[in-house]
Amino acid sequence: MSLPVAVFASGSGSNLQAILDYHAGLDAPPWRVELVVSDQEDAKVLQRGRHAAIRARFLPAAGRSSGDVAGETLDLLRSSEIGFVALAGYLRLIPAPVVAAFRERMVNIHPALLPAFGGKGMYGMRVHEAVLAAGATVTGPTVHFVDEEYDRGPIIAQWPVPVRAGDDPHTLATRVLRVEHLLYPRVVDQFGRALARGCRPAPFSPPGTAFLAHSRATVDLERAISAGFAARTGAAAHGNGERT
Ligand code: GRF
């Protein structure tokens, strides 16, 4: 029996798609995406879940008490026997009782190098606008455990992405999102495998990290991702156009 995983998202769900695509290429993975949850009834992520024959649930949060949302969320997660939760662009704060029930079994991906450029209100293009306004030369996604505050839990994995001269928030977001699609499925897979065995996941070290760290200063990271990373993992280097 594989470990049931839930993905929470408010929008497009291209990270969900990346997780599903990655999962489809694995040989008998001991985990599966069992449930997709969104606080937005018309979110594309729900369509993606249904298209993949996954239970997809709209769970409204706006204007409701945190206690009600927590109760409904926990009922939903328990009824699907969810063992691990991945937030992927979910814009609501996870209620404390849900955090407590899934401590170290719930992660989030953020499109900047936390602890910089995170926290309440820091989502979507605002993150990339802030990175550019600060004059940062490197950005990139962070995967972290979820705690009671936005973007604050312990960091699990980060991946550097260069900021280029002439970038605008959209070009930067696109470059970061491509890396998210490489990073997040691998973190979910590592957690899924460990938790399916009843173990704590080992510290995450993305394949190719040493290569990237070694050559970060001089190598075009996109080329490195396409060539080095894909060669090491057999991963598709390019997202399919449907994800974004
Ligand atoms: C991603 O940039 C992720 O880092 C952030 O929200 C965005 C979600 O994108 N938390 P998508 O819905 O997966 O396309």
Would you write up a description of this structure?
The protein has eight helices and nine strands. The radius of gyration is 17 Å and the shape is globular. Strand 1, helix 1 and strand 2 form a beta-alpha-beta unit. The two termini are 32 Å apart. Helix 1 crosses helix 6. 40% of the residues are buried. The C terminus is likely disordered. The chain has 244 residues and is α/β, with parallel strands linked by helices. The strands form two sheets. A seven-stranded mixed β-sheet has the order 3-2-1-4-5-7-8. Bound molecules: 5-O-phosphono-beta-D-ribofuranosylamine. The site of 5-O-phosphono-beta-D-ribofuranosylamine has 14 residues, from helix 1, strand 5 and helix 6.
Mean pLDDT: 87
**Count of individual helical segments:** 8
The proportion of residues forming helix, as a percent range, comes to 25-40%
Proportion of beta-strand residues: 15-25%
Bound molecules: 5-O-phosphono-beta-D-ribofuranosylamine
pLDDT < 50 stretches:
210-244
Series of H and E elements: EHEHEHEHEHEEEEHHH
Question: What is the number of E strands?
Answer: 9
User: What is the distance, rounded to the nearest whole angstrom, between the alpha carbons of the first and last residues?
Assistant: 32 Å
Q: Mind describing the biggest β-sheet? A: 7 strands, mixed
